[in-house]
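INFO  loader      accepted 1 record
INFO  loader      residues=568
INFO  predictor   begin
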Amino acid sequence: MLERLDGLPFEDVQASFCAVIVDGWISQGVRHAMIAPGSRSTPLALAIVARTEIHVEVFHDERSAAFAALGVGLATGQPAVLLCTSGTAAAHFHAAVIESSLSHVPLLVVTADRPPELKDVGAPQTIDQTKLYGDAVRWFHDPGIADIVASGSWRSLARQSYASTVGVNPGSVHLNLPFREPLTGKAIDLSSERLPRTQILGSIGLSDSELQHAVALFESQKGVIIAGRGCGDASAISDLAESLGWPVLADSRSGCQGIPESVVHFDSLIRCQAFIEHQVPEVVLRIGESPSSKVLSQYVTKSGALQVHVSAFENTFDADSQVSMHISCDPTTFCRGISRLIKAASDPNHLSQWVSADQKARAIITKEFASSKNALSAPQVAFVSRASLSTGDNLFVSSSMPVRDLEWFGGDCSSLQVFSNRGANGIDGVIASAIGVAIATRQKTLVLLGDVAFLHDSSSLTALADRDVDLKIVVTDNDGGGIFHYLPQAEIVSEQVFEKLFGTPHQTDLVRLAQAHRLATFDCDSVEQLQKSLSTAGSCVIRVRTDRVSEVAIHQQLHELVSSTIVA
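INFO  predictor   done
INFO  writer      dumping C-alpha cells
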C-alpha cells in the first residue's frame, strides 16, 4: 500500500485518507451525513458525497445540522456523520454533542481544522479545537495532517471512531481533521483491506444466581414499575409486571403504554390523595430513563420504598439519590430472568386498583378532549396531535411543557415512535432533531413544541420546504415561557419583574416567520381545525394560540377532574 501512495501530492493523500475513512464507516453501517457548508471540510465532504450508500443533507446552520444528526441517531441507533468547517462553526455543534452524551445517542462529529502552520498566527477561522467538547464526547482524536506513513492506520481509525460512538456507553466521538490547501485531490482506491462489520453490544446477561438477589427483594412485595426510554421490550416488562402483580407507570417514550398492566395517567392519579394513601409501594423498580413528572419523583421518595434501577448504561438516573441498587445490564434480559424465577406475586388487588383507576382517568380525559366547546388548550393539542398519527409514525416532543402535556394527558403512545432530547432537557434543536428523525426513517413525523423552542430553532426551517420529508410542526404559542408560571417565581415576584425575567414575551408572528421559509401554515383555535390541518399532506407549521396564565388553571382542572372521577 505504501508504495502505491509514495510520491503522491499531499492533496491526493488527503483525498485517499478521507476515502478510506468514509469506506470504513460505511462498512460499519453508517448511512447518513449532515454537512454544514464550508471550505476547509472539502476533502471529507467530497469523499462522503462520492458514496451513494450515504444519504447527505446540507444545513445552512451548524446547530441545526447537529441536532438533525442527533435525530438520525435517536431514530436508528446508528451514528450520522456530522461535518463542518474550521473555527466557530465547530462551536455550534456543542449543544447537540452534550445532548448526545447525556441521552446516549451515537454521533460521529467531524470538525475540519487548519494545519499547524496556521495556528496562533492570526489566520482566519482558526481556533483551538482540541478537545473542544470536553468530557461530553466518548473519544477525541486528532490524527494530524494525513501522512502516507500512517496510511496503514486509517481503516483502524474509522473502526475505532465508530465503535466508540455505539459501544457500551453510546454517545459522540469527535474527530478533528486538519487539512492543507489545495483541498481537492484524487483518491487512490484502497478498498482491498475491507473488514467485516463488527457488532458492538452494550449489554450483558445475568445468571440465575445474580438474579436471585433481586428476586428476594421483589417477591411478595407491594411495588410499582416505572418504565422510561430504554426500558427494553414491552412484552418482557408486561410478563414481569404480571408475575409480580405490579402496575407499570409508563411514560410516553417507553413503548409500554399499551400493555395490560400499564398506567398512563399516573401523574394525575398520584395527585389524588384519596387514591394514593392506599397505594404506598414497598419496592420501586425503575427501568430506563426517568419520566418528566416531578410529582412522581416526590411520591416515590415520600413512600420510603426500596428503589432498584436497571439500565443498559453504566450511569444512572437518580436525581434524588434514593436508589439503593443500580443494575447495569440489558433490561429485557433482566425482566425475563426475574419473571422466570418469581414464585409469589403481591396482593392481586394492588395491580387491579391501579389499572381500574387509570381506565377511569383515560375515559374522562378522552371525553373532555372530545368536546369542542372550549378553546384549544396545550394538553388537548398534545392529545389530538398524538391521535392524528398512525402506527409506526414518529412523534418528537420538546422539553418544557410539551413533554409533560404528552406524558400526563396525551394518551397511549405505544404504537408510535416517540422521541425527545431529554438528556440535557434543553429546548434547543428540537425542529432539527425532528428533521433528522424524519430523514432517517422516511416516516411521517410530528414535532410538538412551544413558541420559545420554535424561535430557538427557527434557523432549521431554512430549506425545509425543499426536503423530502413529511413533518408537521405543531406550536403551542403563548408568547413566552409558559412553564415558569408553574414555579414559585410566579407567586413570589411582582408581575412586572416576572414578565421581564421569566414570561419573556417575544411578540413574534410565528406564522409569518414560517411563511417566509415557504412553508404551509395553519392557525387553529378548534379541535376540528387542528384535526383538519394535521391531515394535510406535506410539511407545514400549525400554530395554536394559548394563554400562559389560564394554562395553569386548565392543568389543575384536569387533575381535579381525574381525582373526582376516581373518588366517585
